[in-house]
Amino acid sequence: MGTAVARPPVPARKGGTAMTTGIRALTICQPFAELIVADANTLPPGESPKRVENRVWPAAFRGDILIHAGKSTAWFDRQEWDREQYPVPMGAIVGIATLADCIYIDRIRRCERAVVERFPWITTHEHAEGPYCFVLEHVRRFVNPIPYRGALGFFYVPSSEIAGAKVVEAAS
Questions:
Q1: Choices 3.40.1010.10, 1.10.10.10, 3.20.20.450, 2.30.130.30: CATH for 21-169
Q2: Whether the predicted model's global pTM rises above the 0.70 cut
Q3: Percent of the chain with pLDDT over 70
Q4: Of 35, 53, 154, 36, the residue nearest 103 (C-alpha)
């Protein structure tokens, strides 16, 4: 059920100053971070797992990223989400996922063969809105969220912050 995250240290840079080790992280507003890391069987009725994160800028790298749940509650007003029945962590690293691809929305809308062959579900995925769609795979939820301050764009978290964190595979 729970396995430890074992990742080799990645040289990291932030703001021109080198950190010794780290892993990229991305802050995502709730309830969307929850939709990414939650098991499909634990989501509120009518909600489905989110396997696409939308940004206005592309991501040039592929690999593991930490999913950080932001502190803002602004998106709850736009989503029908019962926070009392389905509480979600805020201001914490809640999981890890593999950034498998970054696809411009027009490629999805045109049903480009290379995109549809690799991700046949993406043309009907309710969260593929773009303009850049970060496709997430191999999503794992942390058993215990790790309180951490987020940032805009990708930011680095020292590997020591997540060392020994237990994860559970999210069911799609």
A1: 2.30.130.30
A2: yes
A3: 83
A4: 53
